Amino acid sequence: MSVGILSLIILALAVAGFFLGRSRALQSVQGDPRKLHSLPVYYGQTVFLFTAVPALLLMAAWLVVQPLVIDARIVGQLGPEVAADPSAATLAMEDVQRIASGLDALQAAAGLSNDEMRKMRADLSDIRGRMADVGVALGAEVNPKIFEMAKDFRDMQRGGALMMTLAVLLAAVAGFVWSVLRIKADFRARNVSETFVRWVLIVSAGVAILTTVGIVMSLATETIRFFSIYPASEFFFGLTWNPQFRGGSDLGLIPLLWGTMYITLVSMIVAVPIGIFAAIYTAEYATPRVRSVVKPLIEVIAGIPTVVFGLFALVTVGPFLRDYFAQPLGLGNSGSSVMTAGLVIGILNIPFISSLADDIINAVPQSMRDGSYGLGATKSETIRKVVLPAALPGIVGAILLAASRAIGETMIVTMGAGASAKLDLNPFEAMTTITVKIVGQLTGDLTFDSPETLVAFALGSTLFVITLALNIFALWIVRKYREQYE
Amino acid sequence: MTDISPTPAAMPRTHGLSGSLLTESPLMKSRNAAEARFRSYGIAAIVVALLTLAIMLFTILRDGTSAFFQATLSYPVLIDGAIVDKGGKADPAEMAKVTTISYARLLGDSLIKHLADKGIAVEGMTPKEVTDMISKDAPARLRDQVLADPSLVGKTINVNAFVGGRIDGYMKGRLTRESSANDSNVTPRQLDMADKMIEAGILRSKFNWSFVTAPDASDLRPEAAGLGVALIGTLYMMFLVLIFTLPIGVAASIYLEEFAPKNWFTDLIEVNISNLAAVPSIVFGILGLAIFINFAGLPASAPLVGALVITLMTLPTIIIATRASIRAVPPSIRDAALGVGASKMQTVFHHVLPLAMPGILTGTILGLASAIGETGPLLLIGMVAFVTNYPAGPLDGGFLDPASALPVQVYSWASRSDPAFIERSSGAIIVLLILLVIMNVSAILLRRRFERRW
């Protein structure tokens, strides 16, 4: 039974429980709700919650744990020497899973029963040929031992799914019966259901923590694995990036870091002046009508997906820069370059800086401006000498946040910056960034035990730490230097 | 300040202070010039920003609108029973054994015959050159059409078949005779023939619905590539993201705004939410790959995995928006509810939440709108795979079938070598932008309709 149908059944049971609980409560007082401790709906609500929530949680937990248990058992069958070696175990597991999915396809195509599948033997029937017929390509001849395990794997999966259905339904029915039986006139249904809801709220709020834990765990474990097969000093200080799929790669961070920082620098040179001047104009000069038109229009830029900017960089900006700047100046003839990516990321960051700076400038008290005008300063003098210094910490914070976004930007650099990792000063040269290489190393077929794949996690950790540090630094600056008015 | 200097003229005259208010002093002149300059910098900044936006949208519309039109040949084809239904029993199972190659021959022969009837010919053009003009996709479509309706056998039907991508590019002006001189996929005679066919009304540019509905096609058949799978994938993902984020986001916001005591646990949650909002999206892709695919064993390329990743990514944004709208409900409402004896939970769910709902929905729609264009993390969980089969329906496990997504389709088309795919890519962006406009406009309307000022 599929997870969707199972959840629908549980929800149906819970809704039925709601009505049953309510009517049972009313019955227990002969239809006079004044004699109940709580309003009748709360009796229904307790039944609903106790039926649905524990069962659905159990189902979610089961779905996560079951593959782990099955994997452990299959690996256990392979014998202690395989179980001790993680990479051999992963390889064997992959074989088992591929054959199992082939068997699924075979069963679906030929319409065989489970018993017939069980009787199939690798050394008697031509498994490889039959699987090729249903579109599952197996590399080598099928090892009978692995084939038996694949059959066990399928049985365990099926058994697990059946057990899950039973357990979840049992949990739902148990919650249903227990909460229905608790209903009496003096049962404090409102308090019970409110406490329950409160716990649901707390758990939901905890999802944010779980996400962070998930990010840190997934990054940290794989990064540690990477550093156990590739020396950390060579990663952090290596000057060449040259992954080889046969091993012996150079995986130095420095060229990628250089590309990232160079592109970020170019983008900030574009975005900071334009963003801040746009903010000054909308906050100080524009009439309310102009402001109400211009501000949303600039913010439209922020709503456009980054892949659109990526295509713009690839199709328009890149060739334009190449034909009118790079080639006439003799600086190279690559369409994708630091300049292309930097310019486009700069455009993307304009609304980010301008709307943050606009808020900050607006927060400077009017009395300071009035004081400056009273002394005879012109509007621009007031802005330069009074408003901007007062708003400076906030603006610096905004710039740092924008820089951290530029560092983490993926699509524009993937499409506009190129893929060759080099240390160069020429801004019209194609360079690459940390994010481009994360995408490059993690798309396509992956084997999770080679340094070439695992390096992506180390790059991800580096990126995470850099952006997190920039954000914390930005918040710290804003807090430390913020002028307290009034 | 009681004693005003009796003789102002005796004050030491600083430079530039002239006696007249009507003529500008040199200093004042330069100060006013600086003022005008400063102001024009601001205008220039805004003009630059808006101009780039306009250029970007213009290039995308210019490149992309032609993706919705496709050069189509229309001519009569006799569905010859001797070719497509050798047994003559009109049995679909039997007919399904006839491959597209036979249909290709059928289409090609009919075209040559039709051209001969009309007296259109190009000097030195071989029959193969003529039949090569038809898209490699057309036979498959004709085959599907005949298999779906076996009664067509023996009849003459009017077929609308795409021409190949190069001829299409020639009609759209993407390809000229000069630029195609060294192109092995098209000959000058084919272009001559195309000109004559246009004159005769056989070859026309038609609105192409299949760009929106058809699945992706391989590198060699840009004319057949469509957005169908990507659109379904995106819709599935958005649906799942909505049902994941809305309950969790609202529940978390209610807890943080209304119930959370000031302690280390809630501080920890607050810090986490604000930091997660600033984590680069690609890191969420790594999380999805490591946890959902590698650890939990969910299938790669599945909309469910994409939705889970995007959910985690948009939750902080939605929580921030939801908390703001809950906070905007004035305390007097809560005090009144508590005053007439409602419990804290009743106050929140019966009074605060309904009043905050329009704001919450607006924030959620805007959060979804920014999530719909997210590309980087989806690349990592394998949604960039080449998928030509539609995922199954939502109740048949379609959420676990491989699918693509609109922004990912934009990326994967843009990275193919044939320039015809750049047109497709821009066309896909137009569809994506239309979706975004719809979502944003509905958010604005919702806000206008239900917004309350307290």
Radius of gyration of chain B: 33 Å
SSE string of chain A, helices as H and strands as E: HHHHHHHHHEEHHHHHHHHH
Low-confidence stretches of chain B: 8-13
Main interface by residue count? A-B, 92 and 93 residues
The major sheet of chain B is characterized as: 3 strands, antiparallel
The first-level CATH class name of the largest domain in chain B: Mainly Alpha
Strand arrangement in the largest pleated sheet of chain A: 1-2
* SS strand fraction of chain B: under 5%
The CATH topology of the largest domain in chain A comes to: MetI-like fold
- Rounded to an integer in angstroms, the radius of gyration calculated over CA atoms of chain A is 31 Å
* CATH class group of the largest domain in chain A: Mainly Alpha
According to DSSP, the number of beta strands of chain A is 2
CATH topology of the largest domain in chain B: MetI-like fold
Tally of discrete structural domains of chain B: 2
The second-level CATH architecture of the largest domain in chain B is Orthogonal Bundle
Q: Roughly what is the average pLDDT of chain A, rounded to an integer?
A: 85
Quick recap:
The complex is a heterodimer of chains A (486) and B (454). With 486 residues, chain A is mainly alpha-helical.
Tell me what you see in this structure.
The complex is a heterodimer of chains A (486) and B (454). By secondary structure, chain A is an all-alpha fold. Chain A has two domains: 3-209, no CATH class; 241-481, MetI-like (MetI-like fold, Orthogonal Bundle). Chain A contains 18 helices and two strands. Chain A has helices at 3-28, 40-77, 80-84, 86-110, 114-119, 127-133, 144-181, 189-229, 232-237, 254-285, 288-303, 306-326, 338-363, 366-374, 379-408, 411-416, 434-442, 451-481, and strands spanning 241-242, 250-251. In chain A, helix 8 (189-229) crosses helix 18 (451-481) and helix 15 packs antiparallel against helix 18. Chain B has helices spanning 26-64, 81-84, 92-95, 100-118, 127-132, 138-148, 165-171, 188-200, 210-213, 228-259, 264-276, 281-295, 303-327, 331-339, 344-372, 376-380, 406-414, 420-450; strands spanning 69-78, 156-162, 203-207. In chain B, helix 10 (228-259) packs antiparallel against helix 15. Mean pLDDT of chain B is 83; it is low at 8-13.
